[in-house]
Amino acid sequence: MNPSMSHVLGMVSTGGSSSSSAQQEYLLVGSIMDAASDSLLLRLKALCDNVEIPETFRDHEMVFILRGQNQQAMLRARRSVNPPSSSWQLRYIGQPDVSDKSRMVTVRSYHDCATSKNLPNFLDEIGFKLDYEFVAEGHMFRKGRLKITVSKLYKFSQPGLPESPLDVMTQSQLVELSVVAPSGSENVPEDMRLFAEQLKPLVIVDKLHI
Amino acid sequence: MATALENANLLSRAILTTQKLRISVSKTFNHMKDGIKVSQDEHGAPKSFASQLQEDLFLINESFIELEKLTMAVRRQREAETIGNTGALSMDPVTDKTPLYPKALETYKWATRLREHSAHSQAFLNNSSIKRSSGSGGSPAKRRKTAPTNLNISTQAVDNLVMNVNRQFHDVKITKIQLNPTVLQVYVSRTLQAIIVLRGLLIERVLIRAHHENTLNDDGTLDLWTASKYEVFQKITEHATAASLRYYLPTMQDLSFRSFMHWLNSFSKLFSTPCRLCGKYIKDNLPPTWRCFRTVEPYHECCRP
Amino acid sequence: MGVTCVTQWPVTENRTVPQAVEVLTKRLDALGASKSGNFGVDCETYQSVPTNVPLKYIHVMHNKEQPYTCYAVTDNRTCLVCENSFEAIMHRLNGFYVPKKTARIESKGTRYEMGDFIIKIGIVSLGPHARGVLVEVEYTPCVIIQDCWPLMVEFMQGFMGAQYTPNTHPMLANKQEVPFNAEDTVFQYLEQFENFVKRGSSTATVR
Amino acid sequence: MQNQDKVLDNSLDYILSRVNDLKKALTDLLMKLEHHHETLNWPSVLNSFALLSGQINTLNRHLKSDKTPVLKNLIILPLKLSQDRDEELEKVTEGRVASFNHDVVPNYLRTKPEPESEEREQVLAKDAAQLSPEVAKKQIDNLNRLSTHLLSMLASQRETWDPDSSKLNITTSSPSDTNMLVGAVNMGRGFKRGMVQQPMSNMGAQMARQGDQHAPVGKIPSGIRTNIKSGGGHFNR
User: Fold this and answer.
1) Residue range of the domain that includes C79
2) Overall pTM surpassing 0.80 (yes/no)
3) Is this prediction's ipTM beyond 0.90?
């Protein structure tokens, strides 16, 4: 496996994603206790492509909800706090598609786009209200088109200030395995399952059960 | 702690003894293989093969017994500690706090990449196997050699000059972005930026670009060569080069630089001052890009007196 | 991205829209402008579903000059600059915001270059009908409109006629001298488009 | 009549051959146990047992099948008992039964258990019948408790026997934490201020789900049901 090539391929696929309309996110989630997270990171470093530059992130995510009479829409705005970034990412995440019970991974419709920094303001103006917000801090790995994040979640002690002291959510870190691909990409779940198998028994990643 | 130290001592002794044992064993085998040369013991009496062998075997036996003793000692020490934990040491990479493991991974990936890259580049180079002239490699060295020593002016002097000029002209902001050779970046109002390469205090090269154009290449190195993509600034670069020659005073370097900055400063209102002669802003799609060297009044290139 | 000015080129009674465009292109040719491809600016308006959100509009605009970018402008002129995939997200909000029917308006035409100036002459069409002509002039080396406004006026009078005076630029009113950016161009187009829509609806009611 | 005899003969032959197979397997196993007990390994013993059980099964199946004549209805009548050695018999039984005499015949031709064992069985059956269901249940529970206790003791002992395996089984992730984190990211559980707000927003999310999937009207009640359930879950937490 050529790391640099797959990196490029990954870039190409994400670059093409913006043009295609029916994108879906294939997702598996799990958690790892803080004490064992080092082992997981080491294992991921061995498995994934981007070892020489382990990507860390510290993101601030705001979830906005627009409530109508009998429906509501949810949009997520996310930006990097460290290093501070002037651009935001806007994401729409659909509800998990439960039509096919036999599927091994959660599938939900997914759209994202990079936006300018006035995103919260914009969402406020078109009627969205902030529902909740948090800070996620951790590591990001790539393996081909797979994206693996290991992140610790913090809640705000003061609203709207990602720099303010933060409270830890749990003694565990969230592990997410995701691929964003056009709908109907059949071998994606299989790839993900194979990868998930390699994380056992440290982490068992599974479908979303909300 | 003390037991660990003792253990280490024992181990190193054991290693030495093993070495001794190996030497004596190989010596024995050598003797057996080569037969015994006519050698003499200390008293000058010739030695028989049997006695030599006996001696060798005795040595082996001695080392072996010593080694065995040491091993016993070491084992006893280890039993005092919990073996369970030491066993886990080899199994769990996390407890291994040395960065050996990640470094090894990194090295491996780098090596793979390096091999790929070199394979690619080899393919490329084979396709275009033009012999590079040997001179090109040597020329920078030559240029460095001819660098003028008489123009060596302390960085302190340059800094002073920059500070003075910054104070003198409000619209001009000079920053030193490279030390050797000195490269200055001059922002004139919000209109343009000039990249000035100095030799001593004399202007070696001037490049004018738009205020919002990049100073650095994509890889973060200083871009001293790409001309501005805008016609106005290409034109002004020409005029500025001319001006730098016009104001060239090797004996009064300080004055030379100041007059040039004075001239450059006149561009701060480049887009909002009409031509002195025709009263228009635009001629040939360009604003008045020429400045009188004495009065620094704006003119279009074809309107200049 | 330099400073831009978007103005309307009047279509007089005795001319059709293509003829009006031709007058301009002939002049530009005579001045030595060179063609450099096509351009297009379009605007799609989304209207809120009144049961869910009080009446609001979102104008989603594209400029071919920035082909991967999309501009979403609210009523308060908050402009969100984002990737094209924003439209997919807009479609997901179809319970709240729906595209206004027949509200897709665009200006399409030829792009000319003349020194550091870029001139774009576009025919504005609302649905299938051509409604008028918009001229965009961009002066690329400068990013502060206060610095180069007289220069631009002079340039525009150069090919649009000496008697022609463009409206005072909205950015001129702004006391702060901030660098010009792509949103400002989009705002100008939006302003002009809204004028066309208003006029279009008024003429429609007259008929 | 002749036909029936033939069927009987065939059937007996078949049974005989099966029983011989069984016997052979048994002797094999015994041989193994006796002579190779030092090198014998568990899988091979298991193999032998599997073979035995298979053969017993086929035998039983044959005896129960419809085609087999009902052997129960046949009568064996010992016509003559004698204390003399019977060479023929000895050969047939491979030397186990030397003569057809009063000592062995009752054992070989027995169709019922011995009276003593029958008696004891009956006593046990009576005891079981007398037991009330409650008492029985209590006893079963008792037994279960004892066995689980024993199991846990074994498990804890195992950790001391085998420290390596217990080390490897350190839990590195907990499902409850996963649920908490996932709930937090997706629904904002634990991020929102004010407990009162939570069930409300949760209900909203349920509605969004319906809106998103364009669920037919008939599906709405089920959505409401889950909604009540998850809301209740919140209060319990």
Assistant:
1) 41-99
2) no
3) no
